[in-house]
Amino acid sequence: MTNLIEWNDENTKDFGKKTTVFNHHLHESDLFSDENLIELIDNYPYEDLEVFTMGYNPKGWGEWFLGRRNLLSAEELLAAVKQGRLWLNLRGTNFTNPKLRELADKIFSEVKEKTGVSTFKHDMGLLISSPKAHVYYHADGPLVMLWQLRGIKRVYLYPAQKPCINDEQVEAILMRQQDEQLKFDESYEKYAFIHDLKPGEFVTWPQNCPHRIENQDCVNVSFSVEFLTPQAAWRANLIYANGYLRRVFGLNPSLEKSPKFLEPFKIILARIVKALGLYKGNPKLPRPSFDVDEKANGKIHFDQGIEAPKPIA
Ligand SMILES: [Fe+2]
């Protein structure tokens, strides 16, 4: 069976450890034609499909809005994405669609075969987004591969360390004390790895690296593939334990300077805290604040009292 990913000695070694752009063949499949996307959306649980819109400054903050799809069919929704300023997020498509489950299995068995790394908690989020839409500066808890299928997006990646992100911020994301958004500062720009991600490429980066994304003037279809490795789960639990020690016991632990001999105890602590539900995060999606126009022309209508973002003059 042919590989989905183009592997070489270097990228095999760097997978999950360094920011790396890979070539893949998934965009050659007809799975992501308009017709098939419509079928995919139709078969996806209606209530789980998230529709977002955003402000106009990609380095901004706080203008990320959840909306209501209302009665739009899959076809109308796709038309609205093409004409409007929307970002559709279909999380966990590998759990809802047998073809995509098979695809996820193929991707991760290839990863295992080539790198020797075991992975778990696979989550393939399908992103269908408008021309010039963007995602604000944020960091994710697990490891991520961002697969580009249609359109081009500029990806800005920053190191998972100070000043771009600090221990408290990573802890807050992993403890679900806040959503993944972070405030961006222009001074981070000098640390950025910038790449125009094209169909046939995917990029992966070290765990918790902050990033932001800007679509070019074209509809984008991508997979955000989240996963863990034993090493990534270890790091996530260490961060969780540090966050608990900081918030509940007023300590000031450091991920970078965490003494190795303490790590197994911290992992046990994190597991106990999670199993017994000793720390309640604050996981919440924003409340819906706009309607997608049912005439499917990509227009949206914000609820009363919500200030609509204004295009930059
Ligand atoms: Fe992300």
In N-to-C order, the SSE pattern is: EHEHEEHEHHEEEEHEEEEHHEE
Number of DSSP strand runs: 15
Mean pLDDT: 94
CATH topology of the largest domain: Jelly Rolls
Major sheet size, sense and barrel closure: 11 strands, mixed
Low-confidence stretches at least 5 residues in length (pLDDT < 50)?
Answer: none
In quaternary terms, these chains amount to single chain
- Considering DSSP H and I runs of 4 or more, what fraction of the residues is helical? 25-40%
Count of helices?
8
Task: Please give the CATH class of the largest domain.
Answer: Mainly Beta
Q: Give the CA-based shape.
A: globular
Radius of gyration: 20 Å
Describe the structure.
The mean pLDDT is 94. The longest helix is centred in the last third of the chain and has 20 residues, at 230-249. This protein folds into two domains: 7-228, Sandwich (Jelly Rolls); 230-279, no CATH class. Helix content is 28%, strand content 25%. The chain is of the alpha+beta class. Strands 1-2-11-8-13-6-5-3-4-14-15 form an eleven-stranded mixed β-sheet. Strands 7-12-9-10 form a four-stranded antiparallel β-sheet, with no helix packed on it. Fe (ii) ion (FE2) binds at residues 138, 140, 144, 211.
